[in-house]
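for the writeup, i need someone to sanity check this before i put it in the appendix. the sequnce is what the collaborator sent (i think, or maybe the updated version? ugh). structure was predicted straight from it, no edits. if anything looks off just tell me and ill rerun, i have time this weekend
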Amino acid sequence: MSYVWYKKGAELLKEIEEFRKVRDHLGLWYIGQMGMVFGWNGKILCVDPVRGAMPDDSGMDRRNYPAPFEPEEFSVDFVFCTHDHGDHMHGETLRRLAKRNPEMKIFLPEPLKKQAGEIGIPAAQVVGMRQKEILCPGNALPEGFSVRGVATAHEEYRFDETGCSETLGYVFRFGPYRLFHSGDTVVTREMAEELKMEQGIDVLMVPINGRDLERHARGIVGNMDSREACWFGAEIGADLVIPLHYDMIGGNEENPLVFADYMERLYPDRKYHIMRLGEGLKF
């Protein structure tokens, strides 16, 4: 498994920033773990960015590779967090991004708004979302864009006392393109049926690191594995499946070639892509 950045630093940031000039085409870049960057009609969006250390109980950084750039270098308009684990809702990264981009909005599950304040995110920059809620253009959202929250099961569903899911995936619509970023989750029949109603996901981004008793003993909550991810993509009719969440944290990795093997053997008619760190795709 390679931990080498295809692009990073000024080169990667320049490519992302220059995409603001492009109209009616979609750009996406992989920045590690579940981190993705999207460019659409002059706006830059990011999901689950981790641009700092991930220390263990002894203070040692668990990351297998360094961040590609500092938060202060990144101009971003919208950040989406899927849940409150540190490799998805990373306090240091969010604080520094919020300071660098004072007009930036951070979208996260409604039950996490208080937690966002506790880690130092200004309330004016935080927007809570509920499952099945749809946000459309307005409030500075880019033209041709909408996003809908989908309840996910990070091994199990978790709801607060008002029925709001504490973990969300997001269906992003960029003009004619539909993307689903699942965040951390196992496959459930409920989620599969909900996404089938989209009548075609162009890009499906899902974790593949799996789950087992050994990692449970270390307090690691798991996800779907490679075989489940392949089946899920085929079940909902996704055009392109991108495996994520297999490389950043020591002791919680997976070989993406296992995913590729399942795709080649079980779903040879379907499309997938294993992204290099810092690689971009254009649609």
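The mean pLDDT is 94. Residues 117 and 123 are 6 Å apart (CA to CA).
thx in advance!!
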